[in-house]
Each structure stands twice: as structure tokens, then as C-alpha cells.
């Protein structure tokens, strides 16, 4: 269920679409006509983990709200007062019962449909594959090799694909839900480094 901000968090007045001057010029946003509060609607930072065990397999889990047979990465919202690194370690522990022993940044991407920014890490964990203890919001899990894993062409699916690529295998993509285009977005895959990314051109002159 999607929620919309309708009232000012400062004085509870109903928000209105109001044009105001900002650094970039005149911009229309939800603003409070009483106290001047602006609802910026900034993207929410979401953390994701490609959880790899000592045997080289990746841990995928099924959310209780997903249809049977659909598995994804371990994800969660970053909390106030924590770094992304601390946040993903906390999320992995809360969702799987496993402690992270090493981690590295894998990739970052936007998830516009949910107004989120995804920060994905490759993490290595302590424990055996059977030591997983899922949180109540996850129903089941599976461990898969890079060759067995099928990536989804959205959101965290590109993080899994990058992990598979770095393992030396060609990622395979498939639809995450019925009716979804199974092909990856060419603007998001493959993940390009700065020197390889044609979108990095001479910056325009700002006046």
C-alpha cells in the first residue's frame, strides 16, 4: 500500500502545490501555506546485500508478501544515525541471523518506481548454510551458485548480476513477476565504471 504525505509535519495544515524560489529557480512542490514547510519527497536509502557463504553460494530469500517461487536479496531501510556499512550488517543479522565478517560496495542505483536509492553490498558471513534463522517477514530461503542464479531486470537484480559477473560468469535475466519484461534495462546493465560509461561527457556550462 502506497502512502502520500498530505499534511504538514510541523503544524498539521494540509499541504498544497505551491511554486517557490529555490537554488535551481522556481519549483512547484508540496508546501505548507501556513508555516512554509516544504515536503521535499527525497528518495529513501535502501540497503541490499548479496550474501555469500564460505562455499561461494549466494543466499536468496522469499518475502512473505511475494508469490511462491520468487526469491530476492536481503534488503532493508537504512536507519537514522547509522552508516550504510553498519546498516547492511544490521539488516543481514536481523533478517538471517548471520553475522557479516567482510563487506564491500557492489553498486548503487535508483529505483524510481518506489522513490528509492539502492546501495548494494557484497558481504561474506560467518556460519554454515544451515545456520540461517529467518525473520518473521521472510518465509523461506535458498542457497544458489552463481551459475544457478537468475537475475531480475529491476532494482536489486542488477546487484546480483554484478556479483555473478565478478565471479566470472555471464548473468542470466528473467521476469521477477508475471508480465514483466525479462530483458535488462540497457541504461542500467551492464554496470559501467567511469572510464567505460559513455554518459560521462564534458559537463555543460551553468549560467
From TrEMBL:
MF terms (GO), sorted A to Z: metal ion binding; NADH pyrophosphatase activity
Q: Name one GO cellular component term.
A: cytosol
Q: Which residues form the Nudix hydrolase domain?
A: 41-166
Query: Keyword annotations for this protein?
Result: Hydrolase, Magnesium, Metal-binding
Keyword Magnesium listed? The answer is: yes
**Documented EC number(s):** 3.6.1.22
Checking PROSITE patterns in the record gives:
NUDIX (PS51462), NUDIX_BOX (PS00893)
- Name the Gene Ontology biological process terms: NAD+ catabolic process; NADP+ catabolic process
The prosthetic group or cofactor this protein requires is:
Mg(2+)
Q: Which gene encodes it?
A: nudC
Q: What is this protein called?
A: NADH pyrophosphatase
Amino acid at each position: 500500500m502506497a502512502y502520500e504525505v498530505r499534511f504538514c509535519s510541523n503544524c498539521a495544515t494540509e499541504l498544497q502545490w505551491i511554486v517557490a524560489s529555490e537554488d535551481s529557480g522556481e519549483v512547484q512542490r508540496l508546501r505548507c501555506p501556513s508555516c512554509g514547510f516544504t515536503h521535499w519527497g527525497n528518495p529513501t536509502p535502501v540497503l541490499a546485500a548479496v550474501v555469500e557463504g564460505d562455499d561461494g553460494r549466494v543466499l536468496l530469500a522469499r518475502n512473505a508478501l511475494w508469490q511462491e517461487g520468487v526469491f530476492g536479496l536481503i534488503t532493508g531501510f537504512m536507519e537514522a544515525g547509522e552508516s550504510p556499512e553498519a546498516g547492511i550488517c544490521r539488516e543481514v543479522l536481523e533478517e538471517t541471523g548471520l553475522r557479516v565478517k567482510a563487506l564491500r560496495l557492489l553498486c548503487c542505483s535508483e529505483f524510481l518506481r518506489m522513490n528509492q536509492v539502492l546501495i548494494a553490498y557484497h558481504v561474506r558471513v560467518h556460519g554454515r548454510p544451515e545456520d540461517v534463522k529467518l525473520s518473521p517477514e521472510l518465509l523461506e530461503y535458498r542457497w544458489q551458485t552463481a551459475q544457478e542464479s537468475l537475475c531480475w531486470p529491476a532494482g536489486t537484480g542488477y546487484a546480483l548480476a554484478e556479483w555473478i559477473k565478478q565471479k566470472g560468469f555471464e548473468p542470466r535475466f528473467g521476469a521477477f513477476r508475471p508480465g514483466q519484461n525479462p530483458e535488462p534495462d540497457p541504461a542500467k546493465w551492464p554496470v559501467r565504471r567511469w572510464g567505460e560509461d559513455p554518459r560521462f561527457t564534458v559537463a555543460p556550462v551553468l549560467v
